[in-house]
Amino acid sequence: MLATYSIAAVDLENGDLGVAVASKFIAAGAIVPWVKTRVGAIATQALANPSYGPRGLELLEKGYSAKRVLEMLVSEDPLREHRQVGIVDARGEAAAFTGKECYPYAGHIVGSGYTVQGNIIAGPEVLEAMAKAFETTKGELVDKLLSALEAGDNAGGDRRGKQSAAIIVLREKGGYLGLIDKYVDLRVDDHPEPVRELRRIFEIWELTLLSREDPRDIVKKQDVAREVQEALKTLGFYREEITSNWDETTEKAFTNWANINNFENKLRKDEYIWGTLYRFLLKQAGKLR
Questions:
Q1: CA–CA dist 219, 137 (Å, integer)
Q2: pTM of the predicted model as reported, rounded to 2 decimal places
Q3: What is the Cα–Cα distance from 241 to 178, expressed in whole angstroms?
Q4: pLDDT of 142-158, one tens digit each?
Q5: Alpha-carbon radius of gyration of the chain
Q6: What is the phi/psi pair of residue 168, to 5°?
Q7: Dihedral of CA 136/137/139/144: which sign?
Q8: Superfamily of segment(s) 4-209
Q9: What is the Cα–Cα distance from 287 to 137, expressed in whole angstroms?
Q10: Which residues pair with 33 in a beta bridge?
Q11: pLDDT in tens, 81-119
C-alpha cells in the first residue's frame, strides 16, 4: 500500500517531463514514477497498479490524451477504486483519479500542466501546499517539483510517517554527456527524512552533472581566500598556514578538492568561483549550515 503524495508535470517551454514522490513506503521511486521523453509522466500509487506506468506511456505515445488514457486504464481495472493515478501528457493536458476505497485523506488537484495526488496524507492542505509551491516556484521543472515535494512534507505529508522519496526529470539529450534523456534521476529508498535527503543529494547531482549556474552567483577568489583555506584545511586538502591570500598553493588545493569530488566541470579559469561550489565547500567542511 503506497501511502503517498506525488506530482507529475511538464514544462511546455523546453519539454521537460517529471515526477516527484514521497511516501512511508520502501523505495517508492521504484514503483510510482513513470516518464518518457516527448510522451508524458505518470504517478501510480495507493494500492498501486505498476502496469499503469508502461501501459499508460504506450497509450500516450499512440496519441491518446492524458484524460483518455486515464479512462482506459481505470475502466479495465476491477480494483480501480483502490487505485490512485496522475497523468500528464507532453502537450500539457493533465488528469487524475482517486478511487473511492483509497484510505483517507485521499484526493488530487489537477492544474495547468501538472497534477498532485495523495492518499493517507495529513489532509487536503498537503495537496494545496504542493500545488501552490509548484505554481509559484521560479526555475526549471526540477526546481518546481522539489519545491512541491518539500511543501507537501512541511504541510504534514504522509500521516503514517516518512521513509522514501524520489524525483525523475527527463529532457531530450539532457542527461550524462548528452547521450541519454535522464536530466535528473534520484532516489532515497529508506531514510528518516527522505525529502530533506533528496534535496541534499540533488545539490551534489547539480554540481556534478548540471550546467545551469546563475552568472551573477560568483565570488571573487581573493575575497574568500581565508574561508576557503580554512575549509580546505579542515578537509585535509590545504596544509599550509592560513594567509588569506589566494596563491598558487590555494588554487592547487581547491582544484584538487573539486576534482576529487567530481566537480571539475565547475572550475573556472578566471578570478572567480561559482557561488554554488563555494557554499558546498563550506558546508562540507562544517562551516555553513
A1: 25
A2: 0.94
A3: 42
A4: 999 999 999 999 999 99
A5: 21
A6: -135, 130
A7: negative
A8: Aminohydrolase, N-terminal nucleophile (Ntn) domain (3.60.20.10)
A9: 28
A10: 43
A11: 999 999 999 999 999 999 999 999 999 999 999 999 999
